[in-house]
Structures are given as structure tokens and as C-alpha cells.
Fold these 3 entries.
Entry 1:
Amino acid sequence: MNITRFLNKIYFNSRLKEIEQYAGHAGELQQRVLTRLVGMASSTEWGKKYDYSSIRTYEAFKSRLPIQTYEEIKPYVTRLRQGEQGLLWPSEIRWFAKSSGTTNDKSKFLPVSKESLHDTHYRGGQDAVAIYLGQNPESRFFSGKGLILGGSHAPNLNTNHSLVGDLSAILMENLHPLVNYIRVPSKATALMEHFEPKMEAIARETIHANVTNLSGVPSWMLVLIKHILEKTGKQTLEEVWPNLEVFFHGGVAFTPYREQYKEIIRSPKMHYVETYNASEGYFGTQSDPTDPSMLLMIDYGVFYEFIPLEDVGKDNPRVCPLEEVELGKNYAMVISTSAGLWRYMIGDTVKFTNNRPYKFIITGRTKHFINAFGEELIVDNAEKGLAKACAETGARITDYSAAPVFMDEHAKCRHQWLIEFAQMPDDLNKFARILDDTLKEVNSDYEAKRQNNLALQPLEIIVARPGLFHDWLDQKGKLGGQHKIPRLSNTREYIEEMLKLNH
């Protein structure tokens, strides 16, 4: 008996019918979410401060609450980490997802409630499987095990029974015990703190397992896969796991890694599904293998709002609910969640490609861009440029980071790209020219600044030595988990640190 087909029929198919309602009932579903969240939090300190008990409409919610960043909620988070409760959300907050920091802090500590675990994060994982099985009725997903690659956690301050860690570690720690029968490696191995011994332990435990599916960040999964191939002497991953069929990936854009995955997983039955599971919540799943955009999950414990990118940082930015977004426009995402984040700007930027149902792509970060000369270069532009340059020169990229050169000794300004290649281009100058030309094609502001080399000179590429970005993350204590390379920076802080290691 095909256990996957059986589970799909009795459990996942009914959920797919609910997801089909997204196309025609987005506003209604989101209003229900907002009403539920506000109602549940009305007795909290935050809810009393903003008189949640009298809020009946989105307009009242919007007019009463200011937009929040981590700096505004940090005093509440500090008190929560010290053991106070009932501040932002009514249920006990014992878990804090550790995320990359702000200007003033090395790390952010985002509250995770039992409700957000179940109505957002776990539900997102279940729905990703449901959507995948709906597209692949002959799947044997549950005939083997899932390899989940995540981070680690540690005690929170001196508070009993409270922990901080990567979101992936929090999810793993709180999984239903039955799930552990269908996943590898063991929990003890999965939660190991140090990355390199962890890779060895995972390889040792999983090489002889029947792995059918992978979940994790593409960059770190690639490190593990290469280690497993080296350890086994195999050329492709299907020689190790012949029943492998899907990789659920997220955390960083897949584009720089796609060709490398094609080389080490050559099976035509392999599938790739992008997911958007951040420390703050699970927001999207790729619902069509031919369409890179993701379906916005709108009936979880998350209420969405959006700020046009050009308004980010203004005192009174325009803010709109989901129903008012325009297709093809860049927005900063604002969320209110069942973990007690209220009108919280998470720092990611998105662009909608469809509104029946709502589908989107991640275009970058509100802080990960280059706008030193008015060029407004975002990560989405960079990914498109690099993809075309790779396709036309035979190159493959391991990692990259870019930053402005404000003025060199010749009073010239340009963008400087530090790129680690898995396969060098056949002509580096050609690669740089294609990248530059493609950025002009996809970004009119960049094109204008490059006009006649007046404001911006042609971009510069510096080839990074093998392992540079790995070593930089190691130096920062950020190997593994959900840590990632800053792709675009508006200052030279990161790239200067990297260049010092590039010898």
C-alpha cells in the first residue's frame, strides 16, 4: 500500500480545498485573522494600552497602532526574556527565535508562542507538503524519511524553562514525538551547536537512511550534500538516496545555487519547492513548479499590511492591507501575529505577481540594497543579473556580496562585487559586462546612473578565494542555522571585513 497516497486522501486533500478559497476570499480570510488576533490579545498589557477591546475594523486598528520595528518592541522582549508574561500575547512566551541583528544589537530575539508554532510555522510545513502532494499524486514521500537541517538553541538568560535559538531548532524541539519517526537525524544531532562536527554526525547518521525529502537553507544543505558525497565517494546524491524526490528550501534565494544542485542531483524526478519561513512566521509556499512566485498563506495567525518601498523610513508612510496592493510594485511587509508582534516591519521586501490568489516573490531586504548614488539596486535585480551572466559564461556562483565604492583615488564611484565561484566564467570581463548590462535592463535608476559613466563607473568584480564566505561567517560565530551572507550593503562595513580575509 502507498502510505503517501492514503495520507493524501484522508488528510491533505481536504486542506487543499480550503487553500482554493484563497483566490476569492482573501479580504474575508484576513479580516477573520485580524479579529481573532485582536480579540485574543485584548487583555494583554499591549492590548490594554491600545484599547483592543474597542477595535472592530481594520481602519481602527490602523489608526490606533504605530508601525513597529525591533527597536520599539525591544523593551517588551527584554521583559519577556526576564520572565514577565501577558505583555504582547496572552499565553506564556518561553521561546525566542534568534535572528540577525539591528544597527544597535548583534541579535534580535523574537517571541514564539505555542499558538504561532501551531497555527503558523507547523501549519506552513504541513501545507507545503499538501501542495506538493497535490501536484505529485504518485509521490512516495512518506515511504522514507525527511532530512531537516537546522540550527541550535541555548538557555535564555537565567530564566527557568526558557530558551533562545534558531527558529529551526525551536521547531524541532517542539515537534510532536511521532514526527521524529519520519525524520533524520536524531534530535540530539540536529540540535548540535558547532557546525562542522554537526555535518559529520548528520552524514554518519543519514548515509544509510531512506531519505525521500530535504528541508533547509540551500547554502548549508549544499555543504552537507558535498560532505556526504565526499564521504561516500559517490558522484550524485541519488546514488546515496535513490528515493529522494523533493527539497523544500528557503532562507536565501535559490538562484545562485540552482546549477550546483543540478550537478549533484541529476534525477529527473527531483523537485524543488521554495518556502518563506522566517523567524517571525511562515508566509509563503511555491504552489506551481513552473512559477517561481509563492502563494501567500492568508489563513494562518498572521495579518498582513504593506508599505510601498519608496515610503519606508518616512514619518507617515502609506500603509495598505492585502486587498489594496498593486501588482509589480515593491513593498515592505508588515505583520501582526499570534506571537504578539503588532504592525511589525520585518525588513523583507516583496512584489506581488498575482492577486487571485495572491502570489509574490521576495525582492530583498529594506536594509539590503545599494542606493549610494540614487540607483536603488535591490536583491531581486542582483539575482536576475547574476543568473544571466552565469547562463552566458558557464559560471556557477557559491556566494556573493556587493557594496558601493564611494570614490577611489581617481574620484570614480562604482559598485564592487565580491564573488566566490564554484565554476569560473569562461571570461570574467564578459561576466561583468553581462551583469552590468542586465542590471541596466531591470533597473531604470541604475541605468540612468550608469549613463555615459557619469555617476557610476562599470562595476568591479573581485574573485573571492574558495571558502571565504564560510570563513567570514565562522569568524562572526554564524556558521549554520539560518545565518546568511548580506548580499547587498549600502555601506562598506561587511565587504571590508571580507576583503581582509580574501588572501
Entry 2:
Amino acid sequence: MDREIPKSEIQKRKRRQFLRIGIIAVVIVAAFAFLFVSLRKGVKRSDIVLSKVERGSIETSVSASGKVVPAFEEIINSPIATRIVEVYCMSGDSVMEGTPLLRLDLQSAETELNKLSDEMQMKRLDMEQTRLNISTYLHNLEMQIKVKELSVNRLAAEVQNERRLDSLGSGTGDKVREAELAYNTGRLELQQLRQQLVNERQVKDAEYKSKQLEVSIFEKNMGEMNRTLEDARIKSPRAATLTYINKEIGSQIAQGQKLAVVSDLSHFSVDAEIADSYGERVSVGAPANIRIGKEMLTGTVSNVTPLSTNGVISFTVKLERDDYPRLRSGLKTDVYVMCDIKDDILRIRNGSYYMGPGMYELFVVDGDDELVKRKVRLGDSNYEYVEVVEGLKEGDSVVTSDMNDYKTSQHLSIR
């Protein structure tokens, strides 16, 4: 028959079984822990940029995109319809004031100017002839008045003689009345001639002024034609760099068509655009900072367009150092227009994460080796700092570098 197993042996076997199960459980837990740690996302400390939340002030600004442009640029258009005959300069050439750039065909314009000159001479001769005719006519009228005055004086004397003879009994009353009638008629005719002279002077003066006005208008037209012809001799308006020229010899040019562009490439300004929602915060005279690479230039808003185009407002920034060596025409820049100052606020460093005031999800350092995503409300900013409205406290460390690859993660380990 079977022998009964001692109780001590049974307990010993149970302890071995429990120990074996415990070891297996520890191994399984350790494996799961190792697998969790292995699969958990992490970032290298050297790959992130941290900013500590601090208390300070912010000179708030609104950001805009800008482009460096020459401070002076002039487009030279053709004043007449013609064709290009010769080209004297090429794009990129430095030109002095008055340097010929190209030659246009001006033969038809010069012929038209000569024709106008001949017509001008004829009009001047016609005006002189009118002046002489008026002078002769008025002089004859004045002589008629003088003759009439003599005739009236003679009639007045005859009236006196007839009255004297009548008083002596040698004359008659009819002769007196006849002499008085002739005298009065002569006076009226003299008065009529004098009034005619006044009227004729006014008429002839208006006629002569009309001729003068015709000549004056013609002279202005000729002067304008002369200026147009002079402008058609295409020259540089100032010392600058030729940035564009139409070099197609023989091509037909319409009136007003662009022929050349000269620019001062030693001095620059910045043309910028900003969303019209920020338009009221940009005004003439406002200080502005312009970022070129890692360097910052200062300037002042010198002009703001009053109208919004496609949701943006354009403005110009005049640079304090408009001859800065790194400035190049067409260079893209970031423009920050300064608005006001906020004191004693929480702030963090600005970075690519900031897209304007609102709610953000940022990674905050929790302990020594973990990042936790936190909802944070940010406010105004400038090119250096961003205002923290809520969600962070002074002393927190926040990741300000690009974390787009981890936007679905709530926790990250720091390796």
C-alpha cells in the first residue's frame, strides 16, 4: 500500500510551486515594463529648444511679410508711338544722370514739330496784321472825330453870328433856328462817333486778345511737343543702376510702353503686407523692426495704403540704415510693427509655434525626463517674446521648437 506523504514535504512542494509562479510573474511584469518603456515615444534633449516662463514686459507688435525694394526706382515710358533704333546700355549697367539709354525713331515727331513751327509763324504774322488793321481803323475813327469836332465848333460860331445879326435886325428867326438845328445835329453826330470809338476799341481789343490767346495756346502745344520730343531722347534721370531695358531693336513701341527702369541700389526701403484685420494697428510713424536672417534693423512706417486688396493692406517702412550691406532688392524679410508696451506679464520666447493670439497645445517639462502636453492661452507678441495669458506659471520650461511630429502624443520622454 502507498505510504502517506509527510505534511512538511507537501508544504515544501507548495512553496516551490509558489516561488516558481512568482518568478514567472515577475519576469512577465518586467517584460511588459521593458516593452512599455521601449515603445514609449521620446525626444533627445539636444533636439528641442526650451524657454523658461518669466515675468517681464513686452513691447507688443504685429508681424507682416516684407520685401526689400530700392528706395528710388523710376520707370521710363515711351512718350510717343515709335520704334527702337539703337540701344546704348544693358541691364545691370551703372549710369550717370543724363546718360543716353536708347534711341527712338523721332523722324515723324520732328517733322510734325517743324510743321507746327511754320503754323506758329503764320499765326504770329496774322496776329501782327490784325494789330495793324485795328490800329489803322481806330486811328481813322479818331481823325473823323477831330474833323467832326471842328465842324461842330464852326456850327456853334454860325449860331452865334445868326443870333447877333437877328438882334441887330439884319437876320431872321428862321436862319437862327436853321443854324441851331445844324449845330445840334452836328453835336449828336460827334457824340455818336465818340461812342462808336469806345465800342470799337472794346471790340477790337477783344478781337486782338482772341488772336493772342490762339497764339498762346499754339505756343503751349509747341512747348509740349518740344518736351515730348526731348523726353523721347531716352536718358537716365539720375545716377543709378539700370535694372531693365527693352533691347529689341526695331520693335514697335506704343505710347506709354515701358522702355527702361533705373534704380538706386545703394539705398533701400521695405514694402510689407499685413492682414487687414490688423490694419488699425499699423499707422504712419509707427516704429518697426525688420529681421534679415539673424539680424534686426529698425525703421519707421512711412506710408500705409488706405484700401484693402485681397484681404491685405500694404505699407512701406523707411529704414534708419537704408544702406546696410546685407540689403538686396527682392530679399524677403519679416516685419514687426511695434504697437504698445505691456508691463509685468508672463512671457516665453517667440518661435515657429506662434501663429497669433489664441489657444495652443505646448509641451511642458514635468520632472527631469518627461514632457507633458498642456493647453495654454497666448496673447500679444513681438519678434522676441510671446505673452502668456493662462496655462503656465512662472518658472515652467516650455518647448518652443517645432513639435509637429509629436502632435498626437500627450506624453514624451526626454532621452
Entry 3:
Amino acid sequence: MTMKKKPVTGMRDILPREMEIRNYAMNLIRETYGSFGFVSLETPCVEHIENLSSKQGGDNEKLIFKILKRGEKLKIDTAKEEMDLVDGGLRYDLTVPLSRYYSNNANELPSPFKALQMGNVWRADRPQKGRYRQFMQCDIDILGEPSCLAEIDLILATSTLLGKLDFENFTIRINDRKILKAMAAYSGFPEESYNTVFIILDKMDKIGLDGVRSELLEEGFSQEAVEKYLSLFDHITRDIEGVRYCGEVLKDVMDANVAKDLQTIIQSVDAVKTAKFKISFDPTLVRGMSYYTGPIFEIAMDEYGGSVGGGGRYDEMIGKFTGQNVSAVGFSVGFERIIMLLMERDYQVPTANQKKAFLVEKNMPAEQLLKVFEQATQERSKGIQVNISVMKKNKKFQKEQLTAEGYTEIQEFFKDRM
């Protein structure tokens, strides 16, 4: 049987040029987030199937790579349904594993706990540009902080990172799930239908106001409720004034602190941000995960044409593990999309070490080769990257390749000419 050389569908090999950028970005992430007080952790790539199928992950739960039971536990003949055959799955995000991690280790962790987690996740999705079945996620989360200080910290840390990677003029869109629910309640939609309303609202940027109206009516909602709901969007501006308007109009169905906190987040971020970006109130922002309970946010970047990151507050997830809710909020950067944009820009890593290449003649005597290694060791002690290679017949092509790889100096060593 012939071995297959291409990766499994939806997976990919990563070449050295991209790995250089990825490694630089990962180091910059640790450095930047570390300066905000976040600490690194790691969780297993395999999670209990019960955790992954807990109806917390939205549509991602349809994309789980499930793992068969092993040995005597795998009883194919008596299995009646798929869940009789599996007991684990590859994680589809880092939030569910973090919640389990915190629940299991809370007694040994500070409060609040500021977590940084980077790692691969897997989704059985349809591969497309910027979307793979295995991809790196990068999350920061603050657990145990109920105030909006957590949201401010997360947004500032994430925007600072993007600024250091030379991204600017992006927009962080922000909303609150409590505002979404209050708008639905104010309009007269039944509470059990809120998710249906939000799913349709989430299409606003694609189908427009008229499209949302049509779909809501097709779902059987009353004309009065639909018109009252959509009329809100005619008056809500995408700034502080829009948040204030929501606070005033929805005061009978929403806690006043919801609008106040959102104003504080927007004003604080705007006042002290270091990167060049806008933070904008977006009452149509929904986010797909059902576990969000408060403020939600997304990073929109024109050069990508979509979201390159997002997150929000999920105060009830840890309670699913422990029976006691813990304040929690997180922000995830779309690592793969960021790397793709940097590659398209031909991004040059600014802190790359000086690179030298030593070309040695074939069959060089051991004592002369030793001198080459000694010289290379001296150069490396100065922080210079040194690559020692045997000269090829086509030396011109070899040098061109090395130059393309970033080697700025190429030295040649010949037998008896040291």
C-alpha cells in the first residue's frame, strides 16, 4: 500500500517561513499578556464527551471529533446509539476545558485568576480560506472578577497585542446579552423564542433590516412585536449615546447597571488605548455561544472581511461543573487568521537574530572542521544564528537559497585554506 504524502483533509503542514512568524507571534503574546498579569496554563486536547456535549458550545457541538472507547469498554455489538461507543472527544475550543480546569484546581489558584491558554483545537468543519479542522486558539480569561474591570483589561490587552503586530484601524464591536434579551422582552417576544430571534438578528449584516423583518414574520411572530423590535435599531447609534438610549428605553425590563457598565467599558478603553482602533457599540452583535451571559465583543478587520477574534462574559459555565457560579469573561484572538494576514503582508519578524551561513568544502579534515565549529560557537554566543552546510556543486543556487532564507552573510571554508 502506498503511503499518502498529503495531510488529512482540513489539516496542513506548516513551512519554516510561517513557523518563524508563528513562533514570534506566540512569544509576543506571552510577553504582552504577561505584562497585564496573565499566567500560562495547559489543558489536555481530549475532553470528556459529556463536557463537550453539554449544550454550551452552540453549533460547535455538531463538529466534535469523537473518540471511540478502547479495549473491553468498546462494545460495538450491544451499542444502541453513538454515545454508547464514545467517551471522549478532541476539544473544539479552550473555554470548556478552562472551566473544567478551574473547577478542578480552584483551591490552588488565586482569585481573580488571569489565565492565558494557547493550543490547538479541532472541529469537523468544511475547510476554506483561513479555516481548518485543526487550528491554534489563543485565549485570555479572567475568572472571579464580577466587575467590568475584567472586560476593560481583556480589551486593552488584546488591542495592545494587535498594535504590536502592526495592525491598526480595526474595530472592536461590543454589546451585552442582557441588552439583547431586554430588547426582545420590550418588543413582546416570548422568552422561549429569544434564541430564534437572536439567530435571525445575527444575519443583519448579510440580509439587512428588511431581511430580518421577513424572517421574523416567517417564524410566526406578530407584526406588532417585529415592528416594535426593529424600530429600536432606527434610534440606536453605534456609540456611548446609543448605549444611553438603550438604558433609557429599556429601563423597565433591564437593570440600569447594564448600560452604565457598558458605557464605562467603552469610555475607559477609548481613554487609555495604545493601539489605533475604534470601539463601537453594536446592538446587532449576538455571538454564537449560548454560554454568554453579559458583555460580548468581536474584532472586525477590513482587510480580512470578517471577525478575527471575539469573546464575552460567561458567568454560569463553571457552575455547570461545581454547582456554584463564578464570574468569568474571556477574549480569544483568531490566531490562524492573524498569521494568514501577516503572511499575506510578507511580514518581517523585527527581532530576528542575525543569520550567518558557513559553507564547508566536502571531505574537510576533522581538525579544520573543528575550527569551523569553534568559530560558529563563538558567533552563537553573541546571539547570531549560524548554519553550517557542505558546499554543493551548484554553489550559486545554494547561496541564493540561503539569502532567501534570511542569511545576510555567507562564509566559505576550503580544505587547506583556513
